[in-house]
Task: structure prediction
Amino acid sequence: MTENDKQTESRILEAASEVFLEKGMDGARMQDIADRAGINKSLLHYYYRTKDHLFNTVFEKTVNQMLMRFAPVLDQDLTFEEKIRFFFHEHIDFLMNNRRLPSFLLNEINRNPERMTKLMEKIEVHKLWDTLHAQHKKELNAYNINREDFPQIMVSVAALSLFPFAGFEIVSRILEKHGTGFDEFIEKRKDFATQFVIKALKK
Amino acid sequence: MTENDKQTESRILEAASEVFLEKGMDGARMQDIADRAGINKSLLHYYYRTKDHLFNTVFEKTVNQMLMRFAPVLDQDLTFEEKIRFFFHEHIDFLMNNRRLPSFLLNEINRNPERMTKLMEKIEVHKLWDTLHAQHKKELNAYNINREDFPQIMVSVAALSLFPFAGFEIVSRILEKHGTGFDEFIEKRKDFATQFVIKALKK
DNA sequence: GTCTATAGAAGGATAGAC
DNA sequence: GTCTATCCTTCTATAGAC
Result:
């Protein structure tokens, strides 16, 4: 693979990423991707054979990028509450730079659930529970957290940071009416969500 | 309009609703809708001229149906906490019968934000605040609820009930690994979310 | 109001020259 | 590796018969 190939290939991937995130798999056009990459349509096929293959490449790359960002949460030497804070700040910061990601991922997975199959190997919620539980055995006595409710808690935490972005257009317009901007709202949200969850879980 | 027209027209609308919610605007096919309605493709155009017009009809009908369901929350003669409980039970019950709705609405609005313009006339968050505040003036002293944080609270409440459905395919697969079904999870969620929010907001 | 047939356009994909 | 030209299918939409 020459240096030139690499350039073109990554330009394509970048352009494809933009278009797929904006329009979704069904709404995206190969012509549009080619234009943004500054190349010809047939060159897309030369590198990625089909639209489907190009999409899958973008999809997996995007998911990996997102998951990798949060692996460190567990490794950190932090108290339980600090981990919650750390998560919301990291997660929301990341989403701020990838606003369309939540809506894109949720939607494409719902339309084509098989995409979850590969993904499931990477998401290990029970390991997350085991790790957290081991790391904070004593601390957790101060909270209402048990194995049975853990899924409810996880979904709630994810919801609180993902939803504002998934509903970006709705939320931002409602905020506008209130005289607040989305960016300001999101900046406050890091602390709000942190406190919200901690208070909700504390005994 | 004859009785026959009405039958066909509503059969089309029902079929279109199914297909659009499953596939989205871009993924939906007029042929598919015609087949499900048990009619010919050109008859769709006879009734709704264009795919776009058919989609808009379905979209607005769906939104209205959803909004109407929750107008009664404010009218009820309930305490503040009972209203939160009432909302989560009603909302989640409704979504249980319309699982694809959250993902569909969020996505179509993000793809085409102009759809929000008409919608905004119907969503009056500041009125909601005024009404709630007037109804529970004394009660609210026991909670951390002020006008400034109201959007954060609203978005959080919406997130907690909408997100599990918006992320249906992800959530249900993760639950599967934990040995729980989605239905069971959702049934528990009504109370979980209620308690979660109340605890988080209480002083 | 409903159907058949078909126009017309768009989009994904390939062949072949350079 | 990159481009031009073009094929082939799919899809929306319309014309016209009944």
